[in-house]
C-alpha cells in the first residue's frame, strides 16, 4: 500500500513515460488501482461492475505488447472506469436500470474501441443515475455512490460513479456522458476536471441514448492535461454515428500552455445570481485569477439563459420517451411480467423495469410529444433552443469564452432532492445551456466551500473550440493549487 | 339514388436494395428467420441508424418516375407505436417532408384515359413479420428495417377496375425503373384502400373505411367493388358508414370489420435526432433522372408509332419490361414485327402464364423466336409445325432451325412428291371428291386436311391446295360427271 | 397557465407510454408532473414567432452508407439475449385482433 500510495498521486504523462521505459509495468499500476478500490470502494461505491481478472489479463497482454517492441498507445496501461451506459464487450451494461440487468452488449462502443486502441485498461463500469437521468447518481437501481469528500453528500450525477472513482483515486480517469451537465456537475462536486466536448466530437455509438441531440461523451480526470490526453485519443468522426464530427485540426494536449493573455471572457450576469455564497465567492476569485493571467473578463447579458432549464426539460424528456420506448422485455433485457396479454406485458415490464425518475421523464416526454401539446410545448422549446444558441453566437462574436460557476451550490446531502424533481433539475441550470447549444465546456476545480466541499469553475467555448476551452482551463489550473488537494478517505 | 365510389390507395413498395435502410443486414426474402438481423435492426441500446444511400437513390428514382416534385430539404421523423414487430417502438418514416410530392400516373380503362394524382411518396423502414401460433406469436425481424416507399394517391379512383389499372401501371413503372421487384405475393408491393361512396354530384367525401389484406391486384379490385357495394347498400337502407379498418377475406370475397379505427391514434411524430436533416443536391436528382429507362407509357407510344401495333397489343407487350425487351430483341433479329408480336402475345405469354414462369427463366432466346417466325415466312415450315415444335423450343432452348431439320419437318415443296399423295387421298375419299364436283367447295378443305395428315403436316398447305384443285378439275374435265 | 392535469389525462399518457400505474402512483405522479409542467410554463413568455426550431445544436454534414451487406452477428448469440426465443424466432404473448 505504501509503495502504491505514491503511484496514485502520479499524473498520466509521468506514468506513461515510466510504463514506456519499462520502469513500471502495467500490471503493477493496475494492482495499485485494484488495491485502492478494495480499500475505499465499500465506502464510495463508484462501480456497478468490476472485473479485476479481465483487467489483469489486459495488463499482462499490454506488457507482452511492449516486450514485442510494438508501438504503445497514448493511454498505455493506465486504469480507467467507464460509465455503465457505455458498452464494453465482455462486461454487463445496465445503464443503472433493472430493465437491463444482466444485459451483455455484443459490441464495444466506439469510445471503448478507441480507449482499447490507445492501450487503456478498463477496470469496471461506473455507477450512474438510471439511464443518465438525474443529478445525484441516486436514481441508480443498484447502489448509491457517495461523495469522496463527504460521506453524506451526493457525488453529483449522472456520471457520479465516474467522478467519485477519479476523485477517490480508484482510477486515473473515467469516461462519462453529459446531456445537461452530467460530467461537469459531478466533476464540480468532487473536485476534479470534467470535460464535455462539442456535441458529436466523440461518437455515441454504443452509448445508451437518453436524449440523442444532447448526449455527449466526455472525460473526467484529475487535471486538464490528463483530460486533454484522453480526449485526443477519443474524438473524431465514426461512420456508425452520422451525428459525429471530424477530428480537431491537431491534438489538443500538445497545445496546452498557450498564453491566455488578451483572451476575452464573458460572464453572463444571470449565472451570478441565486448562487450559494461560497460558490459566488470562489467564482469571483477564479475570474480574478483569469484576469491576473491577462484575460479580459466582462459581464454580458444573455436574455434567454433564464429559459434554458425549461427548454432542456421538455426537449430531453421528449427524446427520452422516444429513445426508451424500445425497452419492452421482448428482444433483450428483462421481462417483468408473466402476462399473456401483450399490452399488459409491456405496461408491467416498463412499470417494474424503470425507476421512478425515468418513469416521470418518460411520461412527461410522452405528454410533450402528444397531439395538441407538441407544437405548443415541444416545438416552442426547440425554438427557445435556437434563441439560446443565438445568445451564444452573439457573445462569441466578441468573446472567446463564456465563464461562470458550474453548479449554483456545492454537493447537496444524499436524498435531499430525490423527491423534489424541480429542485434537482435546477441544479443543471448553469450546465444545460452548453448542451442546448452543443458547445464544448469544462468544469475545473476552483476551491472549496466553508464546509470543505469542492466548487467548480465552468468555461464554455464556441462550437468546435474544444482546444481553446482546454487551453484556458489549463492556464487557470497552472495558476491554482485546488486540484492538488485530495479527499481524506 | 345513384352513388359513386371514391378510392384512395396507400401502396407500400420494398426497394430493391441489397441491405436495409439503416443497417447492413441483407434484405433477401425467404431466408431462415432472424438470420438477417443485427443489434441495429433489433434496436439494441446504443445502436444508431446509418442511412443507406442506395435506398434514397431508389426512392428518388421512384419519385421521378411517378412525376413527383422532389422535396430537396428533407428529413426523417419517428412514428411511435408499441407492437412486437416494431423493435424501437417507433418507425423511422417521413412526416412533413416526404421525398416526393404531387406526382401522377396515367391509366386507361375501357379506352378512356385518366390521371391519378399521387399526393406523396416517402421513405420509411418496414416492420418485422409476426407468425401467430396457438402457443404465442413468433417474430421474425428479417424484414424489419427493409427500405419501403409509401405512395399515397389522391382520392381520384372511382372503381375497383381503375384501382387495378393504377396498380398494374404503377407496378410496371416501378419495375421498369428498377426500383423494386414489385411482387405482391412476396409482399414487396402491398396495398391498402380507403373506400367511400357518395351520391353522384356530391363534392364532399363520404365516411371512408380502410381495406387491408389484399394480396393481388385482382383482390384489390374485388375488395373495392365489394366494399363500395356494401356501403351503398348500408346507405340505401338508411344506415350510416362507420369509419373502421376492414379486412378482405379472399376466400369468401367479402370485407370484414376489424376494429373501430381509433380516431385518437397519436403517433407522436417528431424529427429523429439520430439522423441529420439534409439537402438533396440538384446534380444528384439530375443524375437519377437521366438514369431512368424508357417507361411503359413511352414504350407503348413507340410500339404504336414505330411498329404499327394496336394500342392494346402495345399495352400487353409493355406490361412487363422483360417481355418488351424480349420482343424488341426478337424484332432486331429479323422477321415480321406483327407476326413476332402475335407469337409473343399468344404462345410466349400463354406458356409463361401456364407455367407460372417469368420470361427471364425460359431458355428460349429472342433469336430463336425470330428464327421460328422467319422459318414460317420463308415457307420452310408451316404455322402448324411451328406451333408443334414451340413447346420444345421455349422449354429447352433448342434452335428451331436445327430442330426442324433433325426431325425432318421441312415442308414438302416438291410437287412431284405431293402429287402421289394427292392421288392416294382422292382415291381414298370418293365421297369428298363427289361432293366437290357437285359444287360443294367446302369438301376441298377436308381433302387438304387429309393431305396434311398423310404428310404429318409437312406438306406446304398452299401447294397441296393447288395440286388437289388441279387434279379435281382434271377429273371434272374428263367428264367424270 | 400550464394545463391542469387530471388522473384521466395521466392515465392516457401512461397508456401511450405503456407504463402501468397503480392508483396511488397515479396520484403522486399527477402531482409531480403538474409541478414540472408549471415549471416549464415560463417558456410561454418567450416570443418565438418566426424562429426556426433547432433539432441538432451544431451543423452536421449528411453521411450515407454504401449498400454493401455485412454480417457480424450470429443469430443464436443475439437470440440468446431474448427472454423467450424458439426455433430462430423471438417469442411474445399471442397478439390478438388481426
UniProtKB/TrEMBL annotation, chain A:
Q: Which Gene3D superfamilies match?
A: Amidase signature (AS) domain (3.90.1300.10)
Its EC number is: 6.3.5.7
- According to the entry, every stretch annotated as the Amidase domain falls at 29-470
Source superkingdom: Bacteria
Per the UniProt entry, what are the Gene Ontology biological process annotations, in alphabetical order?
A: translation
List the Gene Ontology MF annotations in alphabetical order: ATP binding; glutaminyl-tRNA synthase (glutamine-hydrolyzing) activity; transferase activity
Which reaction equations make up its catalytic activity?
A: L-glutamyl-tRNA(Gln) + L-glutamine + ATP + H2O = L-glutaminyl-tRNA(Gln) + L-glutamate + ADP + phosphate + H(+)
Keyword annotations of the record: ATP-binding, Ligase, Nucleotide-binding, Protein biosynthesis, Transferase
Query: What do the Gene Ontology cellular component annotations say?
Result: glutamyl-tRNA(Gln) amidotransferase complex
Q: Name one Pfam family in it.
A: Amidase
**HAMAP family under this entry?**
GatA
Concerning its family, UniProt says: Belongs to the amidase family. GatA subfamily.
Instruction: Please explain the role this protein plays, according to its UniProt record.
Output: Allows the formation of correctly charged Gln-tRNA(Gln) through the transamidation of misacylated Glu-tRNA(Gln) in organisms which lack glutaminyl-tRNA synthetase. The reaction takes place in the presence of glutamine and ATP through an activated gamma-phospho-Glu-tRNA(Gln).
Q: How does it assemble?
A: Heterotrimer of A, B and C subunits.
Descriptive protein name: Glutamyl-tRNA(Gln) amidotransferase subunit A
UniProtKB/TrEMBL annotation, chain B:
Any one biological process term the GO annotation gives: glutaminyl-tRNAGln biosynthesis via transamidation
The reaction(s) annotated as catalysed by this protein in its Swiss-Prot or TrEMBL entry are: L-aspartyl-tRNA(Asn) + L-glutamine + ATP + H2O = L-asparaginyl-tRNA(Asn) + L-glutamate + ADP + phosphate + 2 H(+); L-glutamyl-tRNA(Gln) + L-glutamine + ATP + H2O = L-glutaminyl-tRNA(Gln) + L-glutamate + ADP + phosphate + H(+)
UniProt entry keywords in alphabetical sequence: ATP-binding, Ligase, Nucleotide-binding, Protein biosynthesis, Transferase
Q: Which Pfam families match?
A: GatB_N (PF02934), GatB_Yqey (PF02637)
What InterPro entries does this protein map onto? Asn/Gln-tRNA_amidoTrfase_suB/E, Asn/Gln-tRNA_Trfase_suB/E_cat, Asn/Gln_amidotransferase, Asn/Gln_tRNA_amidoTrase-B-like, GatB, GatB_C_1, GatB_Yqey_C_2, Gln-tRNA_amidoTrfase_suB_CS
UniProt-listed Gene3D superfamilies: 1.10.10.410, GatB domain, N-terminal subdomain
* Coiled coil regions, renumbered to chain: none
Tell me the GO molecular function terms. asparaginyl-tRNA synthase (glutamine-hydrolyzing) activity; ATP binding; glutaminyl-tRNA synthase (glutamine-hydrolyzing) activity; transferase activity
Extract the signal peptide range.
none
> Which E.C. number(s) belong to this protein?
6.3.5.-
Q: What class of enzyme is it?
A: ligase
Every copy of the Asn/Gln amidotransferase domain together lies at 325-472
SUPFAM superfamilies referenced in this protein's UniProt entry, alphabetically: GatB/YqeY motif, Glutamine synthetase/guanido kinase
Subunit arrangement? Heterotrimer of A, B and C subunits.
Sequence similarity: Belongs to the GatB/GatE family. GatB subfamily.
Q: What does this protein do?
A: Allows the formation of correctly charged Asn-tRNA(Asn) or Gln-tRNA(Gln) through the transamidation of misacylated Asp-tRNA(Asn) or Glu-tRNA(Gln) in organisms which lack either or both of asparaginyl-tRNA or glutaminyl-tRNA synthetases. The reaction takes place in the presence of glutamine and ATP through an activated phospho-Asp-tRNA(Asn) or phospho-Glu-tRNA(Gln).
Protein name, entry field: Aspartyl/glutamyl-tRNA(Asn/Gln) amidotransferase subunit B
State the organism named in the record: Hydrogenibacillus schlegelii
Q: What is the lineage of its organism?
A: Bacteria, Bacillati, Bacillota, Bacilli, Bacillales
From TrEMBL, chain C:
Report the EC code(s) recorded for this entry: 6.3.5.-
User: What SUPFAM superfamilies does its record include?
Assistant: Glu-tRNAGln amidotransferase C subunit (SSF141000)
One of this protein's GO BP terms? regulation of translational fidelity
Keywords of this protein's UniProt record, alphabetized? ATP-binding, Ligase, Nucleotide-binding, Protein biosynthesis, Transferase
Pfam families given in the database record: GatC
Name the domain of life this protein comes from: Bacteria
**Catalytic reactions of this protein:** L-aspartyl-tRNA(Asn) + L-glutamine + ATP + H2O = L-asparaginyl-tRNA(Asn) + L-glutamate + ADP + phosphate + 2 H(+); L-glutamyl-tRNA(Gln) + L-glutamine + ATP + H2O = L-glutaminyl-tRNA(Gln) + L-glutamate + ADP + phosphate + H(+)
What is the enzyme's main class? ligase
Q: Which GO terms describe its molecular function?
A: ATP binding; glutaminyl-tRNA synthase (glutamine-hydrolyzing) activity; transferase activity
**Record function comment:** Allows the formation of correctly charged Asn-tRNA(Asn) or Gln-tRNA(Gln) through the transamidation of misacylated Asp-tRNA(Asn) or Glu-tRNA(Gln) in organisms which lack either or both of asparaginyl-tRNA or glutaminyl-tRNA synthetases. The reaction takes place in the presence of glutamine and ATP through an activated phospho-Asp-tRNA(Asn) or phospho-Glu-tRNA(Gln).
Q: Which family does it belong to?
A: Belongs to the GatC family.
Q: How does it assemble?
A: Heterotrimer of A, B and C subunits.
Name assigned to this protein:
Aspartyl/glutamyl-tRNA(Asn/Gln) amidotransferase subunit C
Source species, please? Hydrogenibacillus schlegelii (Bacillus schlegelii)
Q: Its encoding gene is what? A: gatC
Amino acid at each position: 500500500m505504501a509503495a502504491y500510495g505514491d503511484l496514485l498521486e502520479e499524473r498520466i504523462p509521468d506514468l506513461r513515460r515510466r510504463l514506456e521505459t519499462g520502469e513500471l509495468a502495467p500490471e503493477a499500476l493496475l494492482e495499485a488501482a485494484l488495491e485502492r478500490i478494495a480499500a475505499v470502494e465499500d465506502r464510495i461505491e463508484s462501480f456497478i461492475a468490476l472485473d479485476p481478472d479481465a483487467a489483469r489479463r489486459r495488463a499482462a497482454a499490454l506488457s507482452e505488447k511492449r516486450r514485442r517492441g510494438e508501438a504503445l498507445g497514448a493511454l498505455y496501461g493506465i486504469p480507467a472506469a467507464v460509465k455503465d451506459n457505455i458498452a464494453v464487450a465482455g462486461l454487463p451494461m445496465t445503464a443503472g436500470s433493472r430493465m437491463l440487468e444482466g444485459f451483455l452488449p455484443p459490441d464495444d462502443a466506439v469510445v471503448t474501441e478507441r480507449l482499447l486502441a490507445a492501450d487503456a485498461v478498463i477496470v469496471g463500469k461506473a455507477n450512474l443515475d438510471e439511464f443518465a437521468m438525474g443529478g445525484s447518481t441516486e436514481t441508480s437501481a443498484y447502489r448509491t455512490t457517495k461523495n469522496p469528500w463527504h460521506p453524506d453528500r451526493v457525488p453529483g450525477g449522472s456520471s457520479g460513479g465516474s467522478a467519485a472513482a477519479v476523485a477517490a483515486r480508484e482510477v486515473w480517469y473515467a469516461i462519462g456522458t453529459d446531456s445537461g451537465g452530467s460530467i461537469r456537475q459531478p466533476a464540480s462536486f468532487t473536485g476534479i476536471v470534467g470535460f464535455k466536448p462539442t456535441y458529436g466530437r466523440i461518437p455515441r455509438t454504443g452509448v445508451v441514448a437518453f436524449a440523442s441531440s444532447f448526449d455527449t461523451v466526455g472525460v473526467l480526470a484529475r487535471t486538464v492535461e490528463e483530460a486533454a490526453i484522453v480526449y485526443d485519443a477519443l474524438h473524431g468522426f465514426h461512420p456508425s454515428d452520422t451525428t459525429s464530427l471530424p477530428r480537431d485540426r491537431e491534438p489538443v494536449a500538445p497545445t496546452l500552455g498557450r498564453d491566455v493573455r488578451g483572451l476575452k471572457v464573458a460572464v453572463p450576469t444571470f449565472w451570478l445570481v441565486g448562487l450559494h455564497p461560497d460558490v459566488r465567492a470562489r467564482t469571483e476569485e477564479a475570474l480574478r485569477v483569469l484576469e491576473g493571467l491577462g484575460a479580459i473578463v466582462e459581464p454580458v447579458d444573455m436574455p434567454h439563459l433564464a429559459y434554458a432549464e425549461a427548454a432542456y426539460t421538455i426537449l430531453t424528456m421528449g427524446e427520452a420517451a422516444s429513445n426508451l420506448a424500445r425497452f419492452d422485455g421482448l428482444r433483450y433485457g428483462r421481462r417483468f411480467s408473466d402476462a399473456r396479454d401483450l399490452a399488459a406485458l409491456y405496461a408491467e415490464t416498463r412499470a417494474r423495469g424503470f425507476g421512478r425518475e425515468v418513469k416521470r421523464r418518460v411520461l412527461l416526454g410522452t405528454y410533450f410529444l402528444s397531439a395538441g401539446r407538441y407544437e405548443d410545448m415541444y416545438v416552442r422549446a426547440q425554438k427557445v433552443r435556437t434563441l439560446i444558441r443565438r445568445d451564444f453566437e452573439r457573445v462569441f462574436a466578441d468573446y472567446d469564452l463564456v465563464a461562470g460557476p458550474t453548479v449554483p451550490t456545492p454537493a447537496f446531502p444524499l436524498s435531499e432532492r430525490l423527491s423534489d424533481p424541480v429542485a434537482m433539475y435546477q441544479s443543471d441550470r448553469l450546465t444545460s445551456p452548453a448542451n442546448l447549444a452543443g458547445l464544448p465546456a469544462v468544469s475545473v476545480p476552483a476551491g472549496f466551500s466553508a464546509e470543505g466541499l469542492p466548487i467548480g469553475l465552468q468555461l464554455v467555448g464556441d462550437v468546435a473550440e474544444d482546444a481553446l476551452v482546454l487551453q484556458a482551463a489549463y492556464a487557470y489550473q497552472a495558476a491554482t493549487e485546488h486540484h492538488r488537494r485530495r479527499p481524506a478517505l | 339514388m345513384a352513388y359513386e365510389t371514391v378510392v384512395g390507395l396507400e401502396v407500400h413498395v420494398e426497394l430493391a436494395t441489397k441491405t436495409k435502410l439503416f443497417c447492413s443486414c441483407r434484405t433477401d426474402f425467404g431466408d431462415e428467420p432472424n438470420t438477417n438481423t443485427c443489434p441495429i435492426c433489433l434496436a439494441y441500446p446504443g445502436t444508431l441508424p446509418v442511412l443507406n444511400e442506395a435506398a434514397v437513390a431508389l426512392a428518388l428514382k421512384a419519385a421521378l418516375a411517378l412525376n413527383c416534385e422532389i422535396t430537396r430539404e428533407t428529413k426523417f421523423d419517428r412514428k411511435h407505436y408499441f407492437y412486437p414487430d416494431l423493435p424501437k417502438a417507433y418507425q423511422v418514416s417521413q412526416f412533413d417532408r416526404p421525398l416526393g410530392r404531387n406526382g401522377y400516373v396515367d391509366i386507361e380503362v375501357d379506352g378512356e384515359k385518366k390521371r391519378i394524382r399521387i399526393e406523396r411518396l416517402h421513405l420509411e423502414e418496414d416492420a418485422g413479420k409476426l407468425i401467430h401460433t396457438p402457443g404465442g406469436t413468433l417474430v421474425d425481424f428479417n424484414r424489419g428495417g427493409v427500405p419501403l416507399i409509401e405512395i399515397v394517391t389522391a382520392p381520384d379512383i372511382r372503381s375497383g377496375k381503375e384501382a387495378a389499372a393504377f396498380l398494374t401501371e404503377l407496378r410496371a413503372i416501378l419495375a421498369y425503373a428498377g426500383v423494386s421487384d414489385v411482387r405482391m405475393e412476396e409482399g414487396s408491393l402491398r396495398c391498402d384502400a380507403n373506400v367511400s361512396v357518395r351520391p353522384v354530384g356530391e363534392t364532399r367525401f363520404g365516411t371512408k373505411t380502410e381495406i387491408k389484406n389484399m394480396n393481388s391486384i385482382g383482390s384489390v379490385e374485388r375488395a373495392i367493388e365489394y366494399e363500395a357495394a356494401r356501403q351503398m347498400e348500408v346507405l340505401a337502407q338508411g344506415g350510416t358508414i362507420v369509419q373502421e379498418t376492414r379486412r378482405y377475406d379472399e376466400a369468401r370475397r367479402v370485407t370484414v370489420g376489424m376494429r373501430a379505427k381509433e380516431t385518437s391514434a397519436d403517433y407522436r411524430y417528431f424529427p429523429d435526432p439520430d439522423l441529420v436533416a439534409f439537402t438533396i443536391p440538384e446534380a444528384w436528382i439530375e443524375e437519377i433522372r437521366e438514369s431512368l429507362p424508357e417507361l411503359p407509357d413511352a414504350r407503348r407510344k413507340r410500339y404504336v408509332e414505330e411498329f404499327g401495333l394496336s394500342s392494346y397489343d402495345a399495352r400487353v407487350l409493355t406490361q412487363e419490361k422483360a417481355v418488351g425487351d424480349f420482343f424488341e430483341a426478337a424484332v432486331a433479329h429479323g422477321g415480321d414485327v406483327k407476326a413476332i408480336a402475335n407469337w409473343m402475345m399468344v404462345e410466349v405469354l400463354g406458356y409463361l402464364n401456364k407455367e407460372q414462369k417469368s420470361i427471364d427463366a425460359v431458355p428460349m432466346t429472342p433469336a430463336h423466336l425470330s428464327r421460328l417466325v422467319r422459318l414460317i415466312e420463308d415457307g420452310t415450315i408451316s404455322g402448324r409445325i411451328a406451333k408443334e415444335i414451340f413447346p420444345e423450343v421455349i422449354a429447352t432452348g433448342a434452335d428451331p432451325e436445327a430442330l426442324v431439320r433433325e426431325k425432318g419437318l421441312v415442308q414438302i415443296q416438291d410437287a412431284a412428291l405431293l402429287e402421289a399423295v394427292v392421288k392416294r387421298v382422292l382415291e381414298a375419299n370418293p365421297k369428298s371428291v363427289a361432293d366437290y364436283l357437285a359444287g360443294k367447295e367446302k369438301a376441298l378443305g377436308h381433302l387438304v386436311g387429309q393431305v396434311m395428315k398423310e404428310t404429318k403436316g409437312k406438306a406446304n398447305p398452299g401447294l397441296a391446295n393447288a395440286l388437289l384443285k388441279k387434279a379435281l378439275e382434271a377429273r371434272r374435265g374428263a367428264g367424270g360427271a | 397557465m400550464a394545463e391542469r392535469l387530471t388522473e384521466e389525462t395521466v392515465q392516457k399518457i401512461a397508456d401511450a407510454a405503456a407504463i402501468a400505474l397503480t392508483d396511488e402512483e397515479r396520484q403522486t405522479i399527477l402531482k409531480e408532473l403538474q409541478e414540472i409542467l408549471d415549471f416549464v410554463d415560463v417558456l410561454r413568455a418567450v416570443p418565438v414567432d418566426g424562429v426556426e426550431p433547432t433539432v441538432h445544436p451544431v451543423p452536421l454534414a449528411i453521411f450515407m452508407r454504401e449498400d454493401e451487406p455485412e454480417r457480424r452477428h450470429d443469430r443464436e448469440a443475439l437470440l440468446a439475449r431474448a427472454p423467450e426465443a424458439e426455433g430462430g424466432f423471438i417469442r411474445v404473448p399471442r397478439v390478438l385482433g388481426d
